[in-house]
Design goal:
Layout: E1 3-6, H1 15-24, E2 29-31, H2 32-36, H3 42-45, E3 59-62, E4 65-68, H4 70-80, H5 88-112, H6 125-153, H7 165-180, H8 182-188, H9 193-204, H10 206-212
Parallel strand pairs: 1-2
Antiparallel strand pairs: 1-3, 3-4
EC number: 2.5.1.18
GO molecular function, one term: glutathione transferase activity
Enzyme class: transferase
Length: 236
């Protein structure tokens, strides 16, 4: 099956978590907005196309189905792309972990937009400094420490004892945080040996390595979720 992925052009954003799964599996897919422009998403967002109406991208079209929300898309793709264990209990564990990643991604976004997503970062810099300090000192150690514990409990190499879409999402999460908070992530590094080793292994997977070296992998930038503002970063 050929999949159609819909996400905003110019940024990695939440769409990158889906894109990494498709790339790792060597799936046949079209990045629709990159080919046809962002306007191609509007009929879906306005409920004028067949399939379930998505609230926002990313969403995926597979045949006549339209699936939105990163975790739901990956749960849908996982069995077909061999990126999740077949056992229902293990598939549920993967979904749980992916939803926890989504929780942290939401907190990351709200760090640079703590008052309103409709306002520019420059309009809420004071509040962003306070929110970033909390994320750096409290939330990042809590979330990343949790994922480190999960890996330890599952053999130390993978989130689920075998390669899955969760490994790919953890790679993207760490890569984004490295761009956003280089000083803080370097300081946290010694406490995250399993996650750091996983990040390196994922980057060396053949299809992922080829993708990262291609033009399809957009660089992180200050229009996406993971934004680097030096004033928001510190070692603690």
């Amino acid at each position: 099956m050929q999949y159609a992925l819909y996400y905003w052009t110019g940024i990695q954003g939440r769409g990158e978590f889906v894109r990494l799964a498709l790339e790792d599996a060597g799936a046949d897919y079209i990045d629709m907005a990159r080919v046809h422009g962002d306007a191609v998403m509007q009929p879906f967002l306005e409920g004028r196309n067949e399939g379930a109406q998505p609230f926002a991208p990313p969403f995926l079209k597979a045949g006549r189905q339209v699936i939105a929300q990163v975790a739901a898309i990956l749960d849908f793709l996982g069995p077909t792309l061999d990126l999740v264990p077949q056992a229902a209990s293990r598939r549920m564990q993967a979904l749980q972990l992916q939803l926890t990643i989504a929780d942290l991604v939401a907190e990351v976004h709200d760090t640079h937009h703590p008052i309103a997503a409709s306002k520019y970062y420059e309009q809420q810099k004071t509040e962003a400094r306070a929110r970033a300090a909390s994320l750096r000192s409290e939330r990042l150690p809590k979330f990343l420490g949790y994922f480190e514990q999960v890996m330890a409990a599952n053999g130390g190499r993978h989130a689920l004892r075998e390669h899955s879409y969760v490994d790919l999402s953890l790679f993207q999460l760490l890569s984004g945080l490295d761009y956003m908070f280089p000083r803080r992530m370097q300081a946290l590094g010694p406490t995250l040996p399993r996650l750091r080793a996983l990040q390196e292994r994922v980057a060396k997977r053949p299809n992922i390595a080829a993708y990262l070296a291609s033009e399809r992998r957009l660089p992180f930038n200050t229009n996406g979720i993971f934004r680097h503002y030096p004033e928001l970063d510190a070692e603690r």
